[in-house]
Amino acid sequence: MAKKKKLEKKKRRRVRPKDWENTHEDSFTHDLVKHRRATVKLSESAQESNPLPTGFECNGLVISHSKKWAFVMMGDEERLCIIDERMKEDGATLLAPGDNVYIEFEEDEAIVRGVGERRTKLSRPGGTDARLGEQILAANLDLLIVVAAAADPPFRPGLVDRYLIAAQRGGIKPVLCINKMDLVDEPPAELEAYRDLGIDIVFTSCEDESGLADLREMLHGKLAVLSGHSGVGKSSLLNAIEPNLELHTQAISGATNKGKHTTSASRLYTLGDAIRIIDTPGIRALGLIGVSPEEVAWYFPEIAEAAVGCRFRDCTHTHEPRCGVQDALQSGDLNQGRYDSYLRIRASLESHNNTTPGRLAPHWTGEEHPKL
To answer: Which domains does the chain carry?
Structure first.
């Protein structure tokens, strides 16, 4: 006779207390039920009879946000605000850290009811399964600090080149921050190509604090965003600049030599010396939005300059005769690594898989281009 299974008493789930100020990432990430119940749905007729304000003057700055809630800095006070449900996403993320917003009050409740025009932005495609075509990572930026590691994980110029394109598209000045310089004797050789382009480069180490003063000086009075691969030390840099932040950090994976995600949600921090900086989650790949394969060359200034000598106006700089870019490559005037990066980005866009750097388009055959 089969034994009857002993029915265990179902344990009650413990309710995690909310610490909105210190654990904003967890609070936003895991509080979806509360988000859905945050506001009562308005009928279409009610929305038409009670439209959102226009011609407003922004009175807040977005620090961090979720779908229904936002942390907003108003003066010297950080407030948790409800996002008015009448505000609709128009093909892009509704809010991003750095956005200027208009807040109205109903009794003690603060409500976001308007977003100011974005001066600059860092964005990427929403993804094949996303509702939105464009994911805006940060807004109204003065600087994009592309953080890369000199080692551990190894320097990958392919992602840097994608960030440079995203910076041009978003109207932001890019700066390269090469971190973990204490692990190497010399900077990565690939950096010479970026020096030739006139891009500012700062070398830092959170271990011996070298370069941190230069970075602080560069950030003074600016709104900047830190972005780059997982594991390159973005959160460690913030802790080194402002030790009181005490942001969580992790070592890179020993199995894959890739970083682990430490920051799970973008957030704006106000530091000393009038520094405002947005920390973003590390990424493995950066898709490009609003760039066609034919336009890629114009985002590589040295390739665009050499292309003036091409015989054909629609030259792809891959196989055509009398190609000025190929001539510059042969003469050594064009950096091979940057050209390889151009090929890979163009190929990924042609294959409609631009979130995967290095994947060649299906119709391209022949020797594989070197990995970046």
So the answer is: 57-117 (2.40.50.140), 122-279 (3.40.50.300), 293-350 (1.10.40.50)
